[in-house]
């Protein structure tokens, strides 16, 4: 009886280890391979301001194709490019962390970016792993 229990525990452990190895090594989905939800920076910011929970249900962890006017271009602590799109509210914006550090983006430029939505923060909606949208 004890041998059967130990065998069952051993089999479950092996299955768990196999699942863990698979999850760890499976390829991560890239934003360019995902279908993006098209939205303007003004609309995205407004939806998060009006009802954050509903906006999270609609956008969080999904690919977003956001279009708008660049209000700021900065570098973050990792040396990456951070682009802020005008949301119509001077206190908030749509913050887009670019994947490529050397992208050529200028303040005042109308642009369309594609990235993964990571939700709303103190200074506005955040998108990560952003690329230039076609």
Can you characterise this structure?
With 134 residues, this protein is of the alpha/beta class. Helices cover 31% and strands 37% of the residues. The protein has three helices and six strands; from the N terminus they run H-E-H-H-E-E-E-E-E. It has helices at 2-25, 41-50, 52-59; strands spanning 37-40, 63-75, 81-86, 93-98, 110-121, 124-132. A five-stranded mixed β-barrel has the order 2-3-4-6-5. Helix 2 packs across helix 3 (52-59). It is elongated and about 75 Å long. The model has no long low-confidence stretch (mean pLDDT 88).
Descriptive key words:
alpha/beta, 134 residues, 31% helix, 3 helices
Topology overview:
Elements (H helix, E strand, L loop, with lengths): L1 H24 L11 E4 H10 L1 H8 L3 E13 L5 E6 L6 E6 L11 E12 L2 E9 L2
Parallel strand pairs: 1-2, 4-6
Antiparallel strand pairs: 2-3, 2-5, 3-4, 5-6
